[in-house]
Amino acid sequence: MENSYCGKDCEDCLDREAVGCPGCKNGPGKEDGTLCEIARCCSNKYRNFCEGCDNSESCSKLADREGMMQKWNENKTRVSAEASAAAVPMGSADTAYSGERSSGARDNHDAPFVRSHLLAIFWLFLLAGFGNVLSNENIFGEFSIVIGLGSIINIGASIATAILMIRLGREEDTFKTAGICDLVATGLLFVAELILAGALVAMEFSGLAAGGIGAIFAMLMLLAAVVLEIIAGYKFLVACGRIVERRDFALANRWYVMSKLFFWIFGGIIILLILAFIMPGIALILMFLFVLGVLAFGVCEYVFLYQTANRFRI
User: Among 303, 308, 302, 299, which residue's Cα sits nearest to residue 248?
Assistant: First the structure.
């Protein structure tokens, strides 16, 4: 029982000795559940077992747990067959081309479509970062035109990125979820800023009560937008891992590790806010280290995204 996610007793499994399975946590489900839907689900939810999950009673994956070993065997057989078909004699002049061709045969994704969209998202991420710098009031406080331009660039890049993610949903559904969350969050941020600006004007001319309701409503919208942005960021990391796992298993695992570290970032923010009131000096030092860590995370995301796009080169 301890070796399985779904609750199957490994000692009673008839297929275990035939395939030499050490238990799904050390075998088919070890690498983030790549070869087992149940193991992947538990890994994404940071659970060691299905037991106790809110969806366990209605979960279709758990209901089909007896068929998971068969699916794993079929997947393993298919991958082995593809590897054999892709093999070429040493010294062949066509070796390099065959290697690229075999890589493309490992999944059914439209490689040019995926690569072009991932590269476009890569450049849009960089453009959005440039827009954030321009819209920073601490840098361009006296140049309202520059700040406005930066905001326009940032919003435009965010909308374009969300649309590209939704389009990528035809190859991997998780991209669509990320894109929809990102698009709704961008819309909420834009509307919330307009409402907040109107509320501030109302407060200035008519008093606190006039703009108080609008300000509260705007803050709630901003909070909802932040939550959606967090969901979108996490789903994007997972989607990148899933779409590339058949072409580069190691790169897919890096994406899965990034998706888990993603939540630690927000945990770190909460801890820093608490320490800022208790031990300001220590909080300042930790904040510097935290910023370096976030920058390293962002650099890794850019690098991995570019590498993932190139895995779909034909």
Answer: 308
pTM equals 0.61
Is the pLDDT higher at 219 or at 240? Answer: 240
CA distance 27 to 19: 10
CB atoms within 10 A of CB 181: 23
Check residues 177 and 3 and name the one with the higher pLDDT: 177
Q: What's the token pair of residue 223? A: 């909070």
Tokens encoding 135: 């819209």
Locus of tokens 């994406």: 255
Model confidence over 117-164: pLDDT tens digits?
A: 999 999 999 998 888 777 766 665 666 677 778 778 888 998 999 999
In the chain, pLDDT over 90 holds for what percent of residues?
Answer: 25
Amino acid identity of residue 114, one-letter, is V
Per the CB < 8 A criterion, the answer to whether 170 and 179 are in contact is no
Q: What is the pLDDT of residue 203?
A: 67
Task: Tell the burial category of 12 from Cβ atoms under 10 Å away from its Cβ (0-12, 13-18, 19+).
Answer: exposed
Query: pLDDT value at position 20?
Result: 63
For the stretch 279-292, pLDDT in tens is 877 877 877 787 88
